[in-house]
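Q&A log
Question type: sequence-to-structure
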Amino acid sequence: MKKYAVLMFALASVTLFAQTPQELNDFKKGNQLYNRGKFQDAAVIFQQLAEKGSDAIKAKALFYKALADGKNHRVKLADALKSVEAVKDEKLKAYAGMTAYYHRNQWAKVVTIYANEAIENWQEDYAYIGWLYRGDSRNYRRMYDKAEQDLLLAEKNAGSDGNVYMLALNSLYRLYTTKKQYDKALAILQKVRGKAGQYAGHRYYLAPLTNCASVFIGLQKLDDGHKMLDEVNQKARVEKRNDAYACQYFISRGKLYQAQGDKAKALACYQKAAKCNAHKFYIGIAKELEKKLQAGAGK
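Response status: OK
Response body:
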């Protein structure tokens, strides 16, 4: 059974032999800090255990210190990699190294260094995260076929780890829409949609669903696209958010109206999108769509 449910990765429960009660308590404290995203504080505890703890706990402490440094963006990559080098087990070292590169958006490093890594031979509780890291990195590097293989394995093996499952779906959705494989993209949207009870309002839910227009236009199912956006708005109150997801939502809604030939409604949506408090990239898309439509080039 998978033991990960917090952030991208939560530490597995640990069985330690011959450790003192104080060491076990300290380890649990470090674990709790890690799970709350307090990587620097967790790393301090793991480092202390590695330096002063019993032999039974040192190897584990060094491994989790490397993971904490790998996730902590305040730690320079070179220093994070020094922590990785302290890990003796080669499979755990590969996982810790991949963590450090992935969480610094070093996609090229992940796909190059770990191109032939036999992730299937890793411990089960780490393997599915390794597939996510490498698959998502390959996706960003446009290595789509290999990315799909890894991401499907991550999705299949994520078990109860909802975050990794949703991240795998998000990456697969980007991949399929980029390749214009709209049937596959729609299947991913339906899986994300099914997680509304747990994730409605979360970026893992909103990112693909508010950006669904290309799928329904490609499949010529425009009314179904509106129905999906209606549902997303009902569950996450997207039209009230005034953020990047609201911007994407109005852009998608506008594209669907435009594909249906309703210029007035499309224009109104693009104008609403342009007024959202979103990154200038998304605002620029909305304004460009509005401009083209007003000029008659977007018909």
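Response note: Residues 1-101 form one domain.
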